[in-house]
Amino acid sequence: MPAAVLGKTILLIVGGGIAAFKALELVRELRRAGARVLPVLTENGARFVTPLSLSALAGETVRTSLWDLEDEASMGHIQLSRAADLIVVCPATADLMARAAGGQAGDLASTLLLATDTRVLMVPAMNVRMWLHPATRRNVDRLRGDGVTVMDPDDGEMACGEYGPGRLPELPAIMAAIAAQFGDRPLAGRHALVTAGPTHEPIDPVRFIGNHSSGKQGFAIAAALAAAGARVTLVAGPVHLPTPAGVTRVDVMTAREMQAACEAALPADIAVMVAAVADWRADAAGTKLKKDGSGPPPLILTENPDILAGIGHHARRPALVVGFAAETGDLIAHASAKRTKKGADWIVANDVTEGVFGSDHTHVHLVTAAGPEDWGSTPKQAVASRLVARIAAHLNGQS
Ligand code: CTP
Questions:
Q1: Ligand 1 mean position to 286 CA, how many Å?
Q2: 148: closest CA among 193, 108, 103?
Q3: Known active-site residue 160
């Protein structure tokens, strides 16, 4: 992974937040990996780390002001914004993201972000309520729509004592997100739709029909597609997983919500439907069902729409549609039948008697029109990378 940043120039904008001190570790790590780091410190950032420490670690002049004559003389801000192979904003505060999303240019950091044609990676850190505020949600969506990669912050206890999403991601995750920016991007310009996780179908306000899907495989595929340069819409059922970098996530609960979110995400070039959609929904009671002595309540079940089949036979069908099949016997026969019936190009078949749910490993077969291929027992991450490499080769006419 460090090889990806070797010899690259990274413009690092350090925003004003308690996590700013971690930017110093990032500078050290990037330089260790062979990158040149040009540091920019916002006015508020300078309240948390000193220009001197940043400059000493980076081995470069720290730029802080739009109006610094010496900076302008040595390298103007337009030139500076283009001298880098990547701009990283760490920590990206709510304020800095709001200004970038609004196209403002009132200080050096925002001007650089507006003047650049270089890729931008934002690493947010802020109070949980600020992160969850609708204004920040809007700004993050806007930035992602503008092509900026915005990482999701980590969940956990915050410096302010509150708990939830808002912590700066761990250093290895930031380094991986930076490396991904320099990887091969064979799916650049393509839009991929991915479903992941289970769906929950309510029985009453407190109970639901669900399944054991953890969402790990779908999230790994979404991450691999994004790393390959695709714009990814991840429609996720109820799971506790962080959103992979560069992925736009739509959270849903039921199969019908998942179907609507998939429809709304079209057009797409690629659809990978990994979700374990509940096949049936109940006629949900409006109030909690009580044990009133008359025996168990009858559960009237209705079949849910088949989302994969809907996409596979859609008027705006993506060029490549990939489904999954979870089976407990006759793996290849069932998977091949699902491929034809649902209008999928490929089916990734896995035998779920082998303890796949929640595990990091799986044993899959890829079933295409040419027949099944045994991919053996591998980590879900490896299935994701292999599948994405295969998707890229197919769409780029190499297979
Ligand atoms: N799928 C879907 N919508 C459904 C059911 C399944 O989109 N209502 C998709 C899954 O995301 C997966 C594929 O169809 O890509 C196969 O799912 P699976 O659970 O293996 O099969 P089912 O169609 O549910 O068939 P069965 O339960 O009879 O095996």
A1: 28
A2: 103
A3: yes
